[in-house]
Specification:
3 domains, Pseudouridine synthase, 3-stranded antiparallel β-sheet, 15 strands, 10-stranded mixed β-sheet
Length: 322
């Protein structure tokens, strides 16, 4: 059983117990922490306290997270769009709507189950719950994902991500017209202070995040097609950065690019409402070093039909912005 021991610092004195733990354990939602407190999994000076207890400097906190739920990762014959495969790695074009790995609400029907069916010996590679996975895409984001098929290949790819040796380029349709042809977004990203399922730009409290963008096309609406390169890999990075820039991704219900903006389109563009079922974000290009040969491999994934249908609808109205 895992225990987390913490000591309340002077600057935290007077804060609520759940607030302190939420700050210290930023990867865990405040609602979950409150449940732990209520069920006796959090002790203050060896005794139970309520979530609204005002902590004192020097208080000893002991958190005993519940054992994670376990479930069987059963292979499932879910079709995969394979871009490249050899004995070391696999590159796929993930369709929108496919969840990458099992979690709350998605125990089956995920990419992980599909990978286990496709690669029968993948189960022991990397994280037991996310075998072979090196990175992930949001459920509604489409595009390229790389998978390590052996321990050596998986570790090589993990290191390439950490050292920023991979090139990851996305396409996104965003709201608004950007006045400059290209730019950089360097804003730290962390967990949203109130809505814990979201991320937000955070100044000094977040983790470094860097995104480059280049304008490709402008459309009425106003709408713009962007090419974006990730230099870091924070959760929801492109979506959060673009929203902070004032240009959220079209169809992004979480970060301000969804139904309300679609409903406000001019009459001649209202047909887009039926063509935008999700956030229009696509992992377009990926370059990496082969884990065994060190050869540079570059891949490109065609746009899915829903994203392409939107661009086809807008094409007669496009203005080239290179």
């Amino acid at each position: 059983m895992t225990h987390i021991a913490l000591t309340v610092e002077t600057v935290e004195q007077g804060l609520r117990l759940d607030q302190v733990l939420s700050r210290r354990l930023s990867h865990i939602s405040r609602a979950r922490i409150q449940r732990w407190i209520k069920t006796g999994l959090v002790l203050v000076n060896q005794g139970g306290r309520a979530a609204d207890y005002r902590v004192q400097a020097g208080d000893q906190l002991l958190v005993t997270p519940p054992e994670p739920e376990t479930w069987s990762l059963t292979p499932e014959p879910i079709p995969l769009a394979v871009i490249y495969e050899d004995e070391h790695l696999l590159v796929i074009n993930k369709p929108p709507g496919l969840v990458v790995h099992p979690g709350a609400g998605h125990r089956t029907g995920t990419l992980v189950q599909a990978l286990l069916h496709h690669c029968s010996d993948l189960a022991g590679v990397g994280d037991v719950k996310r075998p072979g996975l090196v990175h992930r895409l949001d459920k509604e984001t489409s595009g390229l994902l790389v998978v390590g098929k052996t321990d050596v290949a998986h570790q090589s790819l993990v290191n390439q991500f950490k050292q920023r040796l991979l090139s990851k380029i996305y396409l996104a349709l965003v709201w608004g017209h950007l006045t400059e042809p290209q730019g950089e977004i360097v804003q730290a990203i962390g967990r949203h202070p109130r809505e814990r399922q979201k991320m937000s730009v955070h100044g000094r409290r977040g983790r470094e995040a860097h995104t480059s963008w280049r304008r490709l096309r402008q459309y009425p609406g106003p709408l713009t097609l962007l090419e974006l390169e990730l230099h870091t890999g924070r959760t929801h990075q492109i979506r959060v950065h673009l929203a902070a820039l004032g240009h959220p991704v079209v169809g992004d219900q979480t970060y301000g690019g969804g139904a309300r903006r679609l409903s406000a389109l001019p009459t001649e563009l209202l047909g887009l409402k039926t063509l935008v079922p999700r956030q229009l974000l696509h992992a377009w290009k990926l370059s990496l070093r082969h884990p065994r040969t060190a050869e540079i491999l570059s891949f490109e994934a065609d746009l899915p039909t829903d994203f392409q249908a939107v661009l086809d609808f807008l094409k007669p109205r496009a203005a080239c912005s290179r």
